[in-house]
Amino acid sequence: MTGGEAPTPEAAGPGPIPLLEGLFTFPVAGEPPRLLASRCNACGGTFFPQRRFCARCSSPDLAQVLLGPRGRLYTYTVVYELFAGLEGFGPYAVGQVEMEGDLRVQGLLTGCEFEELEIDMPLELTLLTIGADERGRPTVTYAFRPAPPGGEES
Amino acid sequence: MREVAVVGVGMVRFDQYPQRSITDLAVEAVLAALADAGLAWPDVQAAWCGAAGQGMTAGTRVLGELGLTGAPITTVDNASASGSTAFREAYLSVACGLYDIALAVGVGRMTGGGAAAPLERKEILRTQAMGFLPPAGVFAMRTRRRMHDYGATIVPYARVSVKNHRHGALNPFAQFQKEVTLEEVLQSRLVCDPLTVLHCCPISDGAAAAVVASLPRARRLDARPLVRLAASAFRSEVYSIDGQLGPTITELTARQAYEEAGAGPEDIHLVQVHDAFTVEEIDYYESLGFCPRGEGERLVEEGATTIGGRIPFNTDGGLLARGHPIGPTGLAQVWETVLQLRGRAGPRQVEGATTGLCQMIGAGGVCVIHILKR
């Protein structure tokens, strides 16, 4: 993760830590989290998660960009048959979310009942605690929740 | 490039064999393929072994059991497309004139978590951070989107499962040889909404093998109608918004295969595809050119893709009923296609079939398509 645009959890104070570095920013001062993506300076392609080389044209000239916080639900599922070790997690919803830059981001869906999920519904990024590390700090990842209608996709 | 024929095929019925080793399974399939070709293991000049997540050098370990002949053996891991890739390599080695007789074998023991190869810690965390999605989830999302785009219910996808189980019931080498009803598919256990367990392929063990030979050598060996390779096309992922398991990769590989064969979908009499999940078969009706995009659901509803229909798909039961031990699955497709083109497929024979197509995709982003012709 490069400095400046993407506050580290240390900068945001003690507490939760990202499950994996380099995927999203931690919100500061009430700001929504953003996704850390790559944009190719040669062909304009946008990719999440970040890449070292462009998937479309192989250029190494990629810049880190922030995506979100809003998107639109492209499709979704509710996972009932859980991976070994996740039995306590309960059924959970996962979606593909269309975001600016012509890409679909896969992530957990939260903040509504499964029955309320609907293709094309507006969503916004949030953070979700999904476990804890060996020191007991909550580990968080990005997720999408229903957004109030009317906002711009950004 | 020289012309190449498939002179022998063999397989072990796909099933769950927790007590059998991969060597035991592979040897049975290879011996069956060699017997079918009228050859012995020392006649094989080179071999490729498709094995997904079966440990280091699976090929030399399992084939060494048959005798240490010195023939070069290569292990191929391309996930579900491992066996198809091994078959292509064996074909190419003969087509290029390096060898006259080559063998491809695929083997997989998936009971006991065989496919769960250790991922790097960072990959595991990334999978978790991006939503812990099992393979069924990827295709559940594709199903959900197709239902939205084309105004479909879950029924046409369930009909793919009903059809392929009906085909499997006619195949003594299928894992499931029992028909299922539409109601049973719809009411079976929910795995990833909207897919129930009967929309998903089972966990399987098994092996399959094929022997290929140059045409002059094949003519001396084989008095039966010769089954030749008309095309062998292979693509890795080309960037697309649909991702590596979307239909685009099949469309691009099919274009290459049809061009190489000098044929089009109208020339194909039967098709085997990677139906690990029901929606895939419907996607591939379209990607392979058998109907326009958005009309796949109608094709299965009309019965066009059942044995006796316009273009039968997955005549051996497909991954859904014949089973899917990953490594050998592409070679089971070759086994079925060769039997069909020889006119020896028994109760599931497609009348008058002279040209068959086999398609496999593999996670990580590959697609392999072969066209076989009598």
Structure description:
The complex is a heterodimer of chains A (154) and B (374). With 154 residues, chain A is mainly β. Chain A has one domain (17-146). Helix content of chain A is 0%, strand content 40%. Chain A contains no helices and nine strands. A five-stranded mixed β-barrel of chain A has the order 5-6-7-9-8. In chain A, strands 3-2-4 form a three-stranded antiparallel sheet, with no helix packed on it. The two termini of chain A are 22 Å apart. Mean pLDDT of chain A is 85; it is low at 1-13. With 374 residues, chain B is α/β, with parallel strands linked by helices. Chain B is 37% helix and 19% strand. Chain B contains 13 helices and eleven strands. In chain B, a hairpin with a 1-residue loop joins strand 5 (190-193) and strand 6 (195-196). In chain B, helix 1 crosses helix 2, helix 3 crosses helix 13 and helix 6 (155-168) crosses helix 10. Chain B is globular, with a radius of gyration of 19 Å. The mean pLDDT of chain B is 95. At the A-B interface, strand 5, strand 6 and strand 7 of A face helix 4, helix 5 and strand 5 of B.
Strand content of chain A: 35-45%
Strand order of the largest sheet of chain B: 3-2-4-7-1-8-11-10-9
Number of strands of chain B: 11
| Oligomer description | heterodimer
- Enumerate how many helices of chain A there are, as a single number: 0
Write down the secondary-structure element order of chain B.
EHEHEHEHHHHEEEHEHEHHHHEE
Task: Give the number of domains of chain A.
Answer: 1
CATH fold-level label of chain B: Peroxisomal Thiolase, Chain A, domain 1
Q: Give the CATH class of chain B.
A: Alpha Beta
How many β strands of chain A by DSSP?
9
Which outline of chain A best applies? globular
CATH architecture of chain B: 3-Layer(aba) Sandwich
Count structural domains of chain B.
Answer: 1
What is the helical fraction of chain B, as a range of percent?
Answer: 25-40%
Largest sheet of chain A: 5 strands, mixed, barrel
Backbone CA Rg of chain A: 16 Å
